[in-house]
């Protein structure tokens, strides 16, 4: 199939999933065209059947806001015509499903049918899309997609709760390529650069937005380090970073907390981590937790949204109510203070991650594409 994928090109989970999906589909012989405003961060191989088309939005002083949706839908029309694209898969409803729908309508005027699959990722439903500013447009774009998927059962339920949806929503979980994480990768660790042998390494990765409850990450670590030798790796950039730096200083643990910024070496960091913290307010899936788990890292998370579908309580880690810092710290210590228990959780995390192996999930998308192509 010739498929156009629209996604955010940034470090966010939706863009990562879209990119990994495109690359996996290309490996299975499909022709993939990524259409977005800059080169997707995880797109490191452009081959004959993987192409990238940049959406330019020229600055014009009259416009207070530059019209990205317009540029994206026009670009889609051109790419579809030039490369005989058969199907469009948009990741994140805002504004991609809306722009995709416009492209579909423009192409229909010329007698071209372009089925559109929309994948909902989380904040497009639970935070941003739900706002009255966007709600009518998001509802419309979902109802006018040919097939709609969500990355967890919980997100499907939220979508049906918050929006008037007439469409069936199919749950297709996010995935990970387990074959990349063989034993060889683990020997590449540079643990000693981060911590002493006796120190446990705890990691958090996110875009440091409010919804991630970054202050809880620091507070949970504060409790942990009172009892055991440990370091905290904070990976990512975002609006809450400064607050987190200040809080670490206030608690006099700044020498134990390392802010590593945005990193292209997530797996290197994770492969020497012992524990991953994800105390989010909302999380439709928690791709970063899955990335930790496939690296054999136990996860302490909240039980919000789709997290219970990913992190298995008592097997890959533990789940707690949002804000329950005390319980999350005590569960972390339960895992970290005993080497045998730690090993059991590391293995549990890796085993659970295998259920989300890419080889089980990509065929589900292929079936969905076949179904979408049958919609006229
Ligand atoms: O978590 C973020 O802030 C980024 C956001 C995104 O759109 O990239 O992540 C959402 O989609 C990911 C991929 O499907 C999910 O793993 C995240 O749980 C989801 N984030 C939220 O629901 C807050």
Structure in words:
α2 packs across α3 and α8 crosses α13. The protein has 15 helices and 13 strands. The strands form 2 sheets. The chain has a 7-stranded parallel sheet with strand order 3-2-1-4-5-6-7, sandwiched between helices. The protein has a 6-stranded parallel sheet with strand order 10-9-8-11-12-13, with helices on both faces. The protein is 43% helix and 17% strand. With 376 residues, the chain is an alpha/beta fold. It folds into 2 domains: 191 residues, Glycogen Phosphorylase B (Rossmann fold); 177 residues, Rossmann fold, CATH 3.40.50.2000. The longest helix is centred in the N-terminal third of the chain and has 17 residues. The model has no long low-confidence stretch (mean pLDDT 93). The site of ligand GMT has 20 residues, from α1 and α4. Ligand GMT binds next to α1 and α4.
Defining traits:
376 residues; 2 domains; alpha/beta; six-stranded parallel β-sheet; seven-stranded parallel β-sheet; Rossmann fold
Compact summary:
By secondary structure, this protein is of the alpha/beta class. It is built from 15 helices and 13 strands. It has two domains: about 1-175 and about 360-375, Glycogen Phosphorylase B (Rossmann fold), CATH 3.40.50.2000; about 180-355, Rossmann fold (3-Layer(aba) Sandwich), CATH 3.40.50.
- According to CATH, the homologous superfamily of the largest domain is Glycogen Phosphorylase B
Question: According to CATH, what is the topology of the largest domain?
Answer: Rossmann fold
Radius of gyration: 21 Å
Task: Work out the number of β strands.
Answer: 13
End-to-end CA span: 17 Å
Ligand kinds: ligand GMT
Number of domains: 2
Largest sheet: 7 strands, parallel
CATH class of the largest domain: Alpha Beta
Proportion of residues in helical segments: 40-55%
Query: Which ranges are low-confidence, i.e. pLDDT below 50, for 5 or more consecutive residues?
Result: none
Strand arrangement, largest sheet? 3-2-1-4-5-6-7
Q: What is the averaged pLDDT score?
A: 93
Order of helices and strands: EHEEHEHEHHEHEHEHEHEHEHEHEHHH
How much of the polypeptide forms β-strand, as a percent range?
A: 15-25%
């Amino acid at each position: 199939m010739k498929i156009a994928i629209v996604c955010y090109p940034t470090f966010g989970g939706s863009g990562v999933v879209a990119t990994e999906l495109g690359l996996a589909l290309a490996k299975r012989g499909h022709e993939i065209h990524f259409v977005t405003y800059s080169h997707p961060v995880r797109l490191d191989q452009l081959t004959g059947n993987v192409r990238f088309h940049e959406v330019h939005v020229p600055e014009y002083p009259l416009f207070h806001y530059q019209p990205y949706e317009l540029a994206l839908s026009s670009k889609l029309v051109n790419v579809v015509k030039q490369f005989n694209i058969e199907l469009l898969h948009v990741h994140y409803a805002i504004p991609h499903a809306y722009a995709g729908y416009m492209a579909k309508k423009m192409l229909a005027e010329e007698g071209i049918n372009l089925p559109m699959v929309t994948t909902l990722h989380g904040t497009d439903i639970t935070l941003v899309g739900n706002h009255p500013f966007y709600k009518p447009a998001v509802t419309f774009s979902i109802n006018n997609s040919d097939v709609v998927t969500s990355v967890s059962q919980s997100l499907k339920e939220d979508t049906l709760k918050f929006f008037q949806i007439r469409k069936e929503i199919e749950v297709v979980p996010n995935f990970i390529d387990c074959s990349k994480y063989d034993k060889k990768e683990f020997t590449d660790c540079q643990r000693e650069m981060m911590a002493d042998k006796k120190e446990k390494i705890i990691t958090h990765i996110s875009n440091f937005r409010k919804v991630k409850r970054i202050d809880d990450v620091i507070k949970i670590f504060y409790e942990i380090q009172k009892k055991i030798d440990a370091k905290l790796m904070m990976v990512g950039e975002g609006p809450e970073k400064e607050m987190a730096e200040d809080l670490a200083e206030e608690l006099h643990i700044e020498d134990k907390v390392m802010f590593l910024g945005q990193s292209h070496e997530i797996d290197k960091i994770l492969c020497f981590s012992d524990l991953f913290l994800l105390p989010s307010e909302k999380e439709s899936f928690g791709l970063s937790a899955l990335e930790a788990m496939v690296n054999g890292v136990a996860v302490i998370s909240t039980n919000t949204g789709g997290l219970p579908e990913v992190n298995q309580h008592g097997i890959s880690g533990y789940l707690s109510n949002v804000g329950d810092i005390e319980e999350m710290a005590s569960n972390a210590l339960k895992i970290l203070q005993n080497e045998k228990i730690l090993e059991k959780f590391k293995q549990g995390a890796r085993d659970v991650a295998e259920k989300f192996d890419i080889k089980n999930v990509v065929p589900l998308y292929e079936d969905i594409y076949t179904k979408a192509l049958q919609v006229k």
